Amino acid sequence: MSQLLKLDHISLAYDTPDGVVPVVDHLSLDLEQGHIGCLLGASGCGKTTVLRAIAGFEPLRAGAIWLGDTQLSAPGHQVEPEHRHVGMMFQDYALFPHLNVEKNIAFGLRRWSKPRRKARIGELLSLVGLEASGRRYPHELSGGQQQRVALARALAPEPELLLLDEPFSNLDVDTRERLAFEVRDILKKTGHTAILVTHNQAEAFAIADRIGVMQDGAIAQWDSPYGLHNNPASACVADFVKREALMAQRAQAYLRGEAS
Ligand SMILES: Nc1ncnc2c1ncn2[C@@H]1O[C@H](COP(=O)(O)OP(=O)(O)OP(=O)(O)O)[C@@H](O)[C@H]1O
């Protein structure tokens, strides 16, 4: 498989009234075509900032972002978000409430011919298992169904790369786990390459081929779930993986009513 996405020593910072605040410092990663990568890390470590930079909403202070042979970003160079062939499913990327499911999915297909658009909508409804719901409105759907529509809308224009920012965070525990597996199946079926951002380790391990643990504005380890678990590159990564696993176990015990 060939490499699709390359983040080459990227640095990102925010201009604030108190000066420049560095967030990401020479972060690098490579993602192969058809793989699902996941950025995992504590709140505020810069995961969303990296995703926004890939989408084209944050300029780079150093480094470069490549999609295949195309340089998307470098200091002083920025391909516009709408020309990047990157789809997005962000946690606050709500569906349009006044449009039915079909029209939500068709949103990015306005330039397509009518027959091609109709065929694509049918394909996507079937892909996300909502064939019977095309005429329904978002408020008539469950949270999980709404996120499946959001996924279909993001995939509709056939992006080369899909970005998912905490896509399951507003769902209950059971639904988010089920949907994480469903989304993985859908992306694998269609061969899409995707980057997911989460602070939930179970979600990362359920969905990703490669996981990057973010610490101090960089990636401490970029590895398969197996590699991360069995061969952590540093004591910090080992601690993070263990601490998260322990918290997940405690949360499960709490939900089962076993915790004190
Ligand atoms: N527009 C902004 N201006 C200034 N600082 C910002 C801005 N957006 C984010 N930050 C800061 O940059 C840091 C990284 O934020 P980011 O949202 O990327 O973190 P995150 O890892 O995605 O967090 P979470 O898991 O809580 O969503 C945080 O300290 C945040 O406060």
From TrEMBL:
<dbReference type="GO" id="GO:0016020">
    <property type="term" value="C:membrane"/>
</dbReference>
<keyword id="KW-1003">Cell membrane</keyword>
<keyword id="KW-0406">Ion transport</keyword>
<dbReference type="GO" id="GO:0016887">
    <property type="term" value="F:ATP hydrolysis activity"/>
</dbReference>
<dbReference type="Pfam" id="PF00005">
    <property type="entry name" value="ABC_tran"/>
</dbReference>
<keyword id="KW-0067">ATP-binding</keyword>
<dbReference type="GO" id="GO:0015697">
    <property type="term" value="P:quaternary ammonium group transport"/>
</dbReference>
<dbReference type="InterPro" id="IPR003593">
    <property type="entry name" value="AAA+_ATPase"/>
</dbReference>
<dbReference type="InterPro" id="IPR017871">
    <property type="entry name" value="ABC_transporter-like_CS"/>
</dbReference>
<dbReference type="InterPro" id="IPR050093">
    <property type="entry name" value="ABC_SmlMolc_Importer"/>
</dbReference>
<keyword id="KW-0813">Transport</keyword>
<dbReference type="InterPro" id="IPR015853">
    <property type="entry name" value="ABC_transpr_FbpC"/>
</dbReference>
<dbReference type="InterPro" id="IPR027417">
    <property type="entry name" value="P-loop_NTPase"/>
</dbReference>
<keyword id="KW-0472">Membrane</keyword>
<protein>
    <submittedName>
        <fullName>Iron(III) transport system ATP-binding protein</fullName>
    </submittedName>
</protein>
<keyword id="KW-0997">Cell inner membrane</keyword>
<dbReference type="GO" id="GO:0015408">
    <property type="term" value="F:ABC-type ferric iron transporter activity"/>
</dbReference>
<dbReference type="GO" id="GO:0005524">
    <property type="term" value="F:ATP binding"/>
</dbReference>
<keyword id="KW-0408">Iron</keyword>
<keyword id="KW-1278">Translocase</keyword>
<dbReference type="InterPro" id="IPR003439">
    <property type="entry name" value="ABC_transporter-like_ATP-bd"/>
</dbReference>
<feature type="domain" description="ABC transporter">
    <location>
        <begin position="5"/>
        <end position="241"/>
    </location>
</feature>
<keyword id="KW-0547">Nucleotide-binding</keyword>
<keyword id="KW-0410">Iron transport</keyword>
